[in-house]
Amino acid sequence: MHSWRCYFSRLMRLSVRWVRLCPRQRQGRRPGPLRQLLSYGKVIFNSLYFNVLTNWDTVLDSIFEPVYWLVDNLTRWFGVVFVCLVIVLTTSVVLIVYLCVLPRIVRTYPTHWILWHLCYGHWNLVNIVFHYYKAITTSPGRSPQEKADIPTVTICKKCIVPKPARTHHCSICNTCVLKMDHHCPWLNNCVGHFNHRYFFSFCLYMTMGCIYCSISAKDMFIEAYYAIEYWAGTHSKNCHLLFSFMLLHKSYYQTPPPNFTSEEKMFHKSLLYLWVLTSSVAVALGSLTIWHAVLITRGETSVERHINRKERKRLKQIGKVFRNPYHHGRINNWKMLFGVEKTSQWITQVLLPSSHPPHGDGLTWGCPPYRQDAMDTI
Question: Which of 100, 170, 173, 184 is catalytic?
Fold first, then answer.
């Protein structure tokens, strides 16, 4: 009997100890979100405090990591919204041009100007649609995940894969992109080696299309603006006179408002919307297009511009001159981007829609197969 009591008391002590040590495991429940967050914070603190390689850069990166994660996920989500916005705005402009601008051109312009508007407008529209579709659907080029016999510069700290020259990691796409220029939310895609031409061509043709719409609809915009202003001013004057009549009980002469139908009012507002939108996009997107044209002429990307600027300052301090190893001359840089080798290809592959790939595979960057005497420096 005594042995049984000792055995039972020992079993109870072991049970109490097991309950105290493993309350969550005993109850079959996972730790709550607050406890998990505290445990995660404790692990981060210990990994930073007891690490001899920790510096302030590492600490700040760890503190701002949730902010980076939030920005990356919001950018990835907003990319879909921006693509839909581009499609909706472009479609609205095209509809207004077909319903309002082109009928006016066909009724009032000479035959040769009508043919010019029809040919140029549709050529520009086809290039815009084609290059935007190719820019958002074409992969910019990914770094090979397996070991390959290609020269690499370093190892990506996030992908843990070799990085070829001009390759950078995109935190939004969560992969390494060949010749990465930037992540464009308006494309919901990275701009890299294989879709850089589509991106630049879309910006160029969209700018040209907006300028074309602004110039073509300028006279109609002025007429619509004055018509709306006259109608609004007359309506405001009538309300003021009616209010004065109610107060003074005197008769007055009231100018009748213009007899604008609902279709005419919608016509005028559509022209105002068209001209304001296309003019604004032409200025903003035109500036971006010029900026990228300068980078292409220099043989740089948006990422490489910041890297080369720091390297240029560093070498200048020690008395050396920086030379961009990927700059093969102004004309040759454009040929490499557009994948052009013959003069006739500027028409068939640049002015007309073409899905040919750019020069090179994006993994190695040697001397281009063009004549060396044609190379110049910027």
Answer: 184
Are 194 and 180 within 8 A, CB to CB?
no
Give the N- to C-terminal CA distance of the chain in Å, as an integer: 101
Tell me: the pLDDT tens digits for 309-366?
999 999 988 988 888 889 988 999 999 999 998 888 999 999 999 999 888 888 888 6
CB 231 within 8 A of CB 261: no
Single-letter residue type at 357: P
Pairing outcome for strands 175-177 and 182-184: unpaired
Is 184 designated active site? yes
Q: What are the residues whose beta carbons fall under 8 Å from the beta carbon of 352, sequence distance 6 or more? A: 127
Question: How far is the C-alpha of 334 from the C-alpha of 375, rounded, in Å?
Answer: 12
Best CA proximity match to 223, nearest among 234, 213, 231 = 231
- Residue 116 DSSP label: H
**For the residues of 130-168, what is the DSSP string, one character each?**
HHHHHHHHS---B--SS--SS---EE-TTT-SEE-TT-E
Instruction: State the amino acid at position 208 in one-letter form.
Output: M
pTM as predicted:
0.74
> Cα(166)–Cα(150) distance, rounded to whole angstroms?
13
202-216 pLDDT per residue, tens: 999 999 999 999 999
Q: What is the CA radius of gyration of the chain?
A: 33
Element (H, E) at 177: strand 175-177
**What SS3 class is residue 301?**
coil
User: Which DSSP helix (H) or strand (E) runs through 343?
Assistant: none
Please state the rounded mean pLDDT for residues 154-161: 82
